[in-house]
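Following the same procedure, sequence and fold were stored together, as reproduced here.

>
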Amino acid sequence: MITRRDALIGTAALVTAGSALAQGAAPELTKLSFGFGIDPPFAPHIVAMQKGWFREAGFTDVQTKSFSAGALAGEALVTGDIHLWTPGNLPPISMAHNGAPVVVIGTNCVNWSLEKLTVRRDANITKPEDLYRIKIGLLQGSTSSAFLYYLAKHYGLDEKRLQVVNLPPPEQLASLLSNAVQGLICWEPWPVRALQSGETVVVHTCVTSGFAANAGQRAKVSDNRSIWVVSQDFARKNPRTVQAMMRVMVRAQRYVADPKNTEEAIKLFSEFQKQDPEINRKIWGNYVFTAAFDDAYVADMEHTAEFLEATGRIKKRINVLDYTYSAPLAAIDAALVKVPGRWKG
């Protein structure tokens, strides 16, 4: 079921010296619609809306829409129901490889510390092999599936012996606390909420082991990053809209990434989402906000595609740069495009 929250950010377009309009790039569209979630990757979007930066760029209204599943958001993007989608990288990679007309226009944030394997203390998980004994809740088909795949690969586990229970994040948490499952693999804020019970412990993050057997050892098992995705049709028909939207998003992203703005960013995000700012403070450091197209971007995208191919979700690999559209980002700051995309529109 799709829910809507309309964020009215102005009734008339204002022109300022630093706006897209002042630079001769009046957007073709004045109303935007974003696919939205509850977690901090949406801080740049919210900061930009709350500070009126979209209004300055010529947009009179921004709508936010949330979806119960990534597939629904992807469909909404292709049909034009939303204009900007900011998912983890796995769903759009799958879509691009299966012929969906989508392109990546930038990285929103790197989430290498975002997902965590959290288990009950009384499960006594001290080494990777102990995972065979427990049930693990995760949302199958999400980036958490890739996390488990690469965790098993890194430690030489037989993934078929792992007991996975397919659950959405809220049910993962409830099942963990009731002992219906003994572990979960999920993104924040669900792990930190689980830790609040005092009955759980993190035994692996995306990049570091918490197993007693090798605690603190670096072990990168996730390539999750949230990315900015638009439909090819939208990019072709609305180049000035894409450019103006990207200019605002990069401005907001840089603002959020600046440590001196952290408290204000948390405040604006928490108020907009009606969330506890203290929880958001605890998880804020998990996110690295950068738009760059660089070697790390390529590696993360290709590694995720490798997982999708190995698990049969894509048949034929295509190069990530074939569905990467870097021209709008290069026009804002050429230094952010270290590896140019090949999609030209």
